Amino acid sequence: MRRLVLPIAALVALSGCKEQKAEAPPPVRPVLTTTVALEEARTFGPFAGTVQPRYESQLGFRIGGRIVARDVFVGDQVAKGTRLAALDPTVQQFALVRARADVADAQAQVKNASAAEGRQRILFENNSAVTQAQLDGAVANRDTADARLAQAKAALQKATDELGYATLTAGFDGVVTAWSAEVGQVVPPGQVVVTMARPDVREAVVDIPDDLIGEMPKDIEFTVRLQEVPEVTARARVREIGPLAEASTRTRRVRMSLIDPPDGFRLGNTVTVAFERPVSPRFPVPLTTLVEDDGHAAVWVVAPDGRTINRREVTILEREEGRAFVGTGLKAGEKVAVAGVHGFTEGQAVRLPETDL
After folding, report:
1. Closest C-alpha to 82, from 204, 174, 215
2. 93 near 197, Cβ under 8 Å?
3. pTM
4. Is residue 7 reached through a cis peptide bond, with omega within 30 degrees of 0 on the bond before it?
5. From CA 105, how far away is CA 148, in angstroms rounded?
6. CA-CA distances (angstroms) from residue 271 to 229, 298, 338?
7. Phi/psi at 55 (nearest 5 deg)?
8. Which pLDDT tens digit goes with each residue over 168-219?
């Protein structure tokens, strides 16, 4: 009888173990989440750019020659009329001396021709042996001498101007932004020697992706911030949009005129350009968080204690590449699952990564 009771007891104990195993809770599942935040304004940007002058001039000598002086360097602020560089003026000085001598000779010829014409006229009027032809010849000689004097004076003016062209001066108050030649170099007429910019009219120049140009609002003011001092800002309006996209980056250059910028906006400074416009309150979430059935959308929200997860219906306002904007159903600060959303069950135990705890 004792032998029969022992097997029965063993069977009862074994069946009890199976029931305990069947009632064991499911394993805790790790979950990747993102924290939702309320968005009440839409930001276009930011885009990085630089402060550049609107007006910039490339200056060179009107005549050719060898550079013998350089008076300014990149970054120097110069006033109108300041000498920037100079050529060797020897050839122009010789030309000026020759032109002055030609003027003196022409003046002497005019004086002689005028005197001869006066004598011929007196003799002709006194019925002397001077004929009309001789008087006309004297008048012609006088006119020719006058013309040669005018020609000599024009040559003198040209020689004087060319001597002045041997000196390159600033035509306006500005800043030197580039230098393209050095002392001792022989330059032809018109070659760029120095580049100057007018700092009074400044612009923010940025490169914006071509596919975003169509989304850029028109006739609005952008906010421009200095990257090194973000607290320093200025307003800007779009003045020019590049007609073609750059081949390698597919961006288009946009120039924005700065409106009364503070002194901190110096030429060459790096800036960020952005624009914010108000939108209806919404929560941007990745598209991977959505579970959609029969036209209804839902997300899996992790409980505040981070131990369980629950499904919640939401309304979608709009979608864009990679994101959806939720209108109702979420609260700021809640965590929603971003991966494996089709494998959760209601109230399932989950475990957040240590970085989310």
Report:
1. 174
2. no
3. 0.59
4. no
5. 9
6. 9, 41, 34
7. -115, 125
8. 999 889 899 899 889 999 999 999 999 999 888 889 999 988 888 877 777 7
